Amino acid sequence: MFGSLQSQVGASPEETLSALLGAVQELSLARTADDVQKVVRVAARELAAADGATFVLRDGDRCFYVDEYAIAPLWKGQKFPLEACISGWAMLNRQSVAIEDIYADDRIPHDAYRPTFVKSLVMVPIRRVDPLGAIGMYWADHHSPSERELAAAQALADSTAVALEHVRVLGELRESVALAETDPLTQLPNRRAWDEVLQSAIESGVRPLCVALIDIDHFKGYNDSEGHQAGDKLLQGAATAWREALRSGDIIARFGGDEFAALMPECEVDDAEGICERLCGALPEGRTASIGVAKWNGLEDAESLLARADAALYEAKQSGRGCVSVAA
After folding, report:
1. Taking the chain (328 residues) in consecutive chunks of 10 residues, what is each chunk's mean pLDDT?
2. Is 258 a catalytic residue?
3. Residue 93: which CATH number?
């Protein structure tokens, strides 16, 4: 038998809370669907010391078992009709289900479970209104889930729904950039693309949201003394270095001339300042940059937000250049 000591004694309240808090924090940082499922599959097991967990997404009229983490194989990569699996039941009925003995419950497709270790399970929908999927937790021995375990599982599912929505918004922002025009020299989005993606971010209500305006210090003098070819090479090097220094969900564009703009969704101003400090130190050939950062207040339009970032950029230049200034 695949039974484990964990499934017999369960997780303590402290372990459950620690696992939940850790998962919520990691989900808030997720930038892709892969990031989300990696967090969920581990956290779901830890919340109740389960012997296995599955991450299921709704694919039309089917349940898609995207990922799993278990003591023995379950159904990773397989799809089943919504009406033929317990994850589908949870989605269709928009409610959690806890089953101590799966072979005593008619909602369970017994033939699909016989090759597995599963004796008991919990299934919770990811979002109760129009569920996106479900999270399953499984035990190799008969296990009666506590109210604490059920509440923690639903809290994980709710946080997963928020994370998946953030991933969707970030994906739309990245897609809008890919479809827009590109600056031929740096291969970054150009000013037109920047305007579109900033407006999309504001309209989608992504919070917190920060923008930065970046100016290469003394670029005109360098361009005049070293030649336009050297200036172009510096711009290209800066674009490459800054693209690599930003987070995966951030966007940098060529704003015009030697000025660039960065969009940092789901980023508090302190974190944005740290990211921009990293940008300052990433320039090639020992060059420096001045950067102005502004956090969207949730009400202002794109023009107002950029004006505050520009004022902060001016302050950085007045302070001696090579530094970051944050708008009030």
Report:
1. 39 82 89 89 91 94 95 95 96 96 96 96 93 96 90 93 86 67 90 90 89 95 93 94 91 94 95 94 87 96 96 95 93
2. yes
3. 3.30.450.40
Amino acid letter, 105: D
For Cα atoms 264, 27, 66, give the angle at the middle one, nearest 5 degrees.
115
Supply the pLDDT for residue 78.
94
If asked whether residues 208 and 156 sit together in one domain, one would say no
Catalytic residue (choose from 258, 270, 301, 310): 258
Residues 146 and 36 in one domain: yes
Whether residue 174 lies inside any domain: the answer is: no
DSSP 162-208: HHHHHHHHHHHHHHHHHHS-B-TTT-SB-HHHHHHHHHHHHHHT-SS
What is the pTM (predicted TM-score) of this model?
0.57
Structural domain containing residue 246: 180-326
Please check whether residues 111 and 211 belong to one and the same domain: no
